[in-house]
Specification:
Blueprint lengths: L6 H6 L11 H7 L12 H14 L3 H14 L1 H10 L1 H8 L3 H7 L1 H4 L6 E4 L6 H6 L8 E5 L16 H14 L6 E7 L5 H4 L15 H17 L4 E4 L4 H11 L5 E3 H21 L8 E4 L3 H16 L4 H6 L1 E5 L2 E2 L9 H4 L11 H8 L3 E4 L9 H10 L4 E4 L11 H7 L5 E4 L6 E3 L2 E3 L2 E2 L6 H11 L6 H13 L3 H6 L9 H18 L11 H8 L10
Parallel strand pairs: 1-3, 2-3, 2-4, 4-5, 6-7, 6-9, 9-10, 10-11, 11-14
Antiparallel strand pairs: 7-8, 12-13
Helix pairs in contact: 4-5, 4-7, 5-10, 10-21, 14-15, 14-22, 18-19, 21-24, 22-24, 24-25
Length: about 550
């Protein structure tokens, strides 16, 4: 028997609360008369109040705290405001501000959100998942906090990442927030400053590693498949070795993907396809040099290689067009001790000790930074790219902003206005000798929400590379010629919900074509996607 709600339930549950928006009739019916200020305010007035207070905050972190508090008390209003002001608020809800929020997570903690599975919970993970009050979870973002953005091991503080990602699933693609579950796998941390911080909220122990770690992750994935059989698992911000290994282990056993590997690859592939429209150079003619040899770099290289192969290039030749540089220099075939996921990108070449030397030796058309090495794209490097190419493609993708390989202004200035630029963190317009450039932000939010929605709508049993190919090409196709002329390689963020809906339909088409869907194909797939999207409307208590 369902227990009757008390009046305070409607004010304290963020999914029920309408604040001062409860009508006169609802106040009488629900017993709220006297518990609210007497004036009934409409949604427009409520949004105006939120924006006024948001814009008054003295720093992005304070704005983050304010929006988080709004989410905790009135979820519908939070998403209404976020959806209407996504360009202004995404950098606060997610990168770059979420990085600072994660660093200070224990110090700004207000109210628990999400589920914590710890190293002490082996043998009872299913029980923990059943503690979650919503039985129909569709999207689950999980991190173990070891590689948060470019900030490294933040342990349980990494929970800010799943929370932020799932807010974007709802705001950008309309995934119902009631069906979203953020999860932190807390296996400890090797950061001494966190272990010494009395306000750190995670386990005060060194990181669990080896077989015990693998057993916990195995139990977790199996428990999700049992308790939430329709859920998509998104792995997020795991250290490189674990990220690659876990994706390889589970991608054919569970409905899962890794956003750092596949989502990043999707948005970069879309950026390269857009850049090719500017230069007139097809993807199969690009030579791509990566600074960084981790999960993101190898994931991008794999998807780009596959795309080149689909466009007719032999696989060996496509693979040879992607080269990686790490802290020891260019990855070459004679480098000893390379793990398999890196070895496939180590080509025969004389040793090259650094990035500048690799640019001179290989003359790439594309330079992609996924290293977390702030300032690594020096003036020497950018000018070398500009000497080798009429329109060099420069993607400094590391985030938050403090970790960017270069700024958008540096890329444009040092290339004398010829660079085609996409960045990981947002940068404002750049003026150079009377010209105005709007750098594209290669934000994964252009890819993962639409992919997730497409998988949900189709009931796909697995997430495949073909889905990310479809998402990337759909995203690139959404960029209009006037936007390309401004320097944009991606559509404006204000259009992200419609773009995500289009991507979701394309992803669902792949699921049906590959025989992975578990629901009948709708007669009008685009309409079915649109009908499934949460819009933040208040519930009616009539």
């Amino acid at each position: 028997m369902t227990q009757a709600r008390s009046p305070l339930d409607y004010l304290h549950d963020p999914r029920l609360n309408k604040g001062t928006g409860f009508t006169e009739e609802e106040r009488d019916r629900l017993g709220l008369r006297g518990l609210l200020p007497p004036r009934v305010t409409n949604l427009a007035d409520q949004k105006e109040r939120i924006l006024e207070n948001f814009r008054r905050k003295p720093s992005p972190l304070e704005q983050y705290i304010y929006l988080t508090s709004l989410q905790d008390r009135n979820e519908h209003l939070f998403y209404q405001v976020l959806m209407e002001h996504i360009e202004e608020m995404m950098p606060v809800i997610y990168t770059p501000t979420v990085g600072e929020a994660c660093v200070r997570f224990g110090h700004i903690f207000r109210r628990p959100r999400g589920l914590y599975v710890t190293a002490r919970d082996r043998g009872r993970v299913r029980t923990l998942l059943r503690h979650w009050p919503e039985p129909d979870v569709a999207m689950l973002v999980v991190t173990d906090g070891e590689r948060i953005l470019g900030l490294g091991d933040l342990g349980a503080n990494g929970m800010g990442i799943p929370i932020g990602k799932l807010a974007l699933y709802t705001a950008c693609a309309g995934v119902d927030p009631a069906r979203c579950l953020p999860v932190a796998i807390d296996v400890g941390t090797d950061r001494g400053d966190l272990l010494e911080d009395p306000l750190y909220l995670g386990l005060h122990q060194p990181r669990l590693r080896g077989p015990a770690y693998d057993e916990l992750l195995e139990e977790f994935v199996a428990a999700v498949s049992e308790v939430f059989p329709r859920a998509v698992i998104q792995f997020e911000d795991f250290a490189t070795e674990n990220a690659v290994r876990l994706l390889a282990r589970y991608r054919d056993r569970a409905c899962c993907f890794n956003d750092d590997i596949q989502g990043t690859a999707g948005v970069v592939l879309a950026g390269l396809l857009s850049a090719g429209r500017v230069t007139g150079q097809p993807l199969v003619e690009q030579r791509v040099l990566f600074l960084g040899a981790g999960a993101a770099a190898t994931g991008i290289a794999q998807l780009v290689t596959a795309a080149m192969t689909r466009d007719g290039l032999p696989e060996a030749e496509a693979r040879a067009r992607c080269s990686l540089v790490d802290e020891q220099g260019l990855l070459t075939a004679d480098r000893p001790g390379l793990p398999e996921f890196r070895r496939r990108w180590a080509h025969p070449h004389a040793p090259v000790p650094d990035l500048a030397g690799a640019v001179e030796a290989l003359r790439p058309t594309v330079l992609i930074g996924v290293s977390g090495a702030a300032g690594a794209f020096t003036e020497t490097v950018i000018r070398a790219m500009a000497r080798a190419n009429p329109r060099p493609i420069i993607f400094p993708l590391s985030n938050p902003t403090s970790k960017a390989e270069c700024t958008a202004e540096q890329a444009y200035t040092w290339s004398e206005g010829r660079a085609i630029v996409a960045t990981g963190s947002p940068f404002g317009p750049v003026e150079w000798r009377g010209r105005r450039f709007i750098p594209g932000q290669g934000n994964n939010a252009y890819i993962f929400p639409g992919v997730g929605l497409g998988v949900i709508v189709s009931g796909a049993r697995r997430v495949t590379d073909g889905m990310f190919h479809a998402a990337a090409r759909t995203l690139a196709g959404a960029v209009q010629e006037p936007e390309l002329a401004e320097g944009r390689l991606f559509p404006p963020l204000r259009e992200i919900r419609s773009v995500s809906a289009t991507i979701a339909a394309a992803v669902a088409e792949v699921a049906f074509a590959e025989g992975l869907a578990t629901v009948p194909r709708p007669a009008d797939l685009a309409r079915a996607v649109a009908a499934s999207m949460y819009d933040g409307s208040y519930p009616s208590y009539a």
